[in-house]
Amino acid sequence: MNKLVESADAAVADVKDGATIMVGGFGLCGNPENLILALHRKGVRDLVLVSNNCGTTELGLGVLLKARQIRKIVASYVGENKEFERQFLSGELEVELVPQGTLAERIRAGGAGIGGFYTATGVGTQVAEGKETRLLSGREYLLELPLKADFAFLKAWKADTWGNLVYRKTTRNFQPMMAAAAAVTVAEAEEVVEPGALDPDRIHTPSIYVRRVVRGERYEKWIERRTIRPATA
């Protein structure tokens, strides 16, 4: 039951070229920083990433993008990364833009074994192109299909060695759904404790969904765009 591995590099050792990976985080908040860097060091390529966005030009998942390790990304926001823009416009990067709520529900559906769901979000836009539609109660809906992955890379605030995870505030974001939708879930945590040390009522992701845990280190906790009030006289 001890799922603690010795390093982030060991935690990603079985990731192969072409793997589909869900990565937690919202912007640069809650990124699994150690696992991203380990994946960069491993040098795997042609990755398909499912995440809220692709970080910034120099930080977060942008590290993998800049190294040309990503073939396709499924995301809901891409506005902070100039290299993303360049690769997309030049045809080097495949992009599937998904409305944020739809992205979360597609991931949840993948973990829950749901074959698809109907949503009104995106009707009449490019999001609807090529998708089945249905009229329900006088309103048009799109059929959206679930998302699944080979791996999920998550960032927890606390974990125990069994793999139970607790996220801190906003960093929870898409991560509980991703844990259920991947064949192998790897979590890094700021603090790793012994079994029984976490309050069972406060566990956000049960250990049954987690294959490996690694103790994170040297967190930067980046800020995408620092905004401060002007100095007053």
UniProtKB/TrEMBL annotation:
Record flagged with keyword Transferase: yes
Keyword list, A-Z: Transferase
EC numbers: 2.8.3.5
Transferase in keyword set: yes
InterPro entries: 3-oxoacid_CoA-transf_A, CoA_trans_fam_I, CoA_transf_BS, NagB/RpiA_transferase-like
Pfam family, one: CoA_trans
Gene3D superfamilies assigned to the protein according to its UniProt record, in alphabetical order: Glutaconate Coenzyme A-transferase (3.40.1080.10)
GO MF, one annotated term: succinyl-CoA:3-oxo-acid CoA-transferase activity
Protein name listed in UniProt: 3-oxoacid CoA-transferase, A subunit
